[in-house]
């Protein structure tokens, strides 16, 4: 059973004062899960916003991700400790391997066991992976056990539904976290999504997020605008019908937005 919040605030591409304002506003509006990563270069600002928010650390769920340069056994734990210093916390709630990076010279067994060691040391409450395909998830399971992989955070949107991978993860009891759920905003103009939004007196973003939530995924949308941050939260109470869900299911087009050379493995 995953204890990962269904709704969180993403901080990808947000820097400096922009990320401080986004996190501060999000926390004011009721967000309690914050997702960052070493490579985002904003952990210190996220930590600053959390510290200034007045929200107790125990009421927050903070996720970070280990960057590929830090996968070796010698670097992973020191890099996570550095992240904790920036985030102003003794431990994060979840730490993920950011990309499998199959050819970066560090074997999967090495970085997964180092990540498990970070958990054993109390630096992170849960561990998981991000952007792992089925084969690599199986390899990670072989190293740490599926009960120790809290989630696989993957790109998922109405245009990229990754059913084969999702089916595998759900069979294994590994929670699915969806990022890029709005496909960089591309799904917001989709006529099917817009028609559902009109019928439901909702926004297209709310419809896409509600679709992912209904499928059991966690979502971590980001925004710099207060009205969008507030509006996105309302996706949690938007009920889509089976017909709505079927219409969105038909939008699959393998519309992947993110697949960096050298970092991604072969997608399923």
Please provide a written account of the structure.
The chain is α/β, with parallel strands linked by helices and 268 residues long. The chain has a single domain (9-185, 216-229), classed as NADP-dependent oxidoreductase domain (TIM Barrel, Alpha-Beta Barrel), CATH 3.20.20. The chain has helices at 16-29, 43-53, 73-87, 108-120, 134-144, 163-172, 191-200, 204-214, 226-233, 242-249, and strands at residues 9-10, 33-35, 61-66, 92-97, 124-130, 151-155, 175-179, 218-219. The radius of gyration is 18 Å and the shape is globular. It starts with 8 loop residues before the first strand and ends in a 19-residue tail after the last helix. The model has no long low-confidence stretch (mean pLDDT 97).
What distinguishing features does this structure have?
single chain, 268 residues, alpha/beta, TIM Barrel, eight-stranded parallel beta sheet, 8 strands
Assembly state of the chains shown: single chain
Per the CATH scheme, the topology name is TIM Barrel
Q: Segments where pLDDT lies below 50 for 5+ residues?
A: none
Q: H/E order of the elements?
A: EHEHEHEHEHEHEHHEHH
- What's the name of the CATH homologous superfamily? NADP-dependent oxidoreductase domain
The tally of helices reads: 10
Helix percentage range: 40-55%
Strand residue content = 5-15%
N- to C-terminal distance:
25 Å
Largest beta sheet: strand ordering: 1-2-3-4-5-6-7-8
* Number of E-type strands: 8
Return Rg in Å: 18 Å
Shape: globular
The name of the CATH architecture is Alpha-Beta Barrel
Mean model confidence by pLDDT: 97
Query: Which class do the helix and strand fractions yield?
Result: alpha/beta
Largest sheet: 8 strands, parallel
Q: How many structurally independent domains?
A: 1
């Amino acid at each position: 059973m995953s204890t990962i919040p269904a709704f969180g605030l993403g901080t990808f591409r947000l820097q400096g004062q922009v990320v401080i304002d986004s996190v501060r506003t999000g926390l004011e509006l009721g967000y309690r899960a914050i997702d960052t990563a070493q490579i985002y270069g904003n952990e210190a600002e996220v930590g600053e916003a959390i510290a200034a928010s007045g929200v107790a650390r125990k009421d927050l769920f903070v996720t970070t991700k280990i960057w590929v340069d830090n996968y070796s056994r010698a670097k992973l734990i020191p890099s996570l400790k550095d992240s904790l210093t920036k985030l102003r916390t003794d431990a994060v709630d979840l730490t993920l391997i950011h990309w499998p990076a199959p050819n970066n010279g560090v074997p999967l067994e090495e970085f997964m066991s180092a990540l498990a060691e970070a958990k054993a040391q109390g630096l992170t409450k849960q561990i998981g992976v991000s952007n792992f395909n089925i084969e690599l998830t199986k390899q990670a399971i072989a190293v740490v056990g599926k009960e120790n992989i809290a989630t696989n955070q993957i790109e998922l949107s109405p245009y990229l539904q990754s059913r084969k991978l999702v089916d595998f993860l759900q069979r294994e009891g590994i929670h699915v976290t969806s990022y890029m759920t709005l496909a960089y905003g591309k799904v917001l103009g989709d006529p099917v999504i817009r028609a559902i939004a009109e019928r439901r007196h909702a926004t297209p973003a709310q419809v896409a997020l509600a679709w992912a939530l209904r499928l059991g995924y966690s979502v971590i949308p980001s925004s710099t605008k207060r009205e969008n941050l507030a509006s996105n939260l309302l996706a949690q109470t938007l009920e889509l019908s089976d017909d709505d869900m079927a219409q969105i299911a038909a939008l699959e087009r393998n519309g992947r937005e993110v697949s960096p050379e050298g970092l991604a493995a072969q997608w399923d």
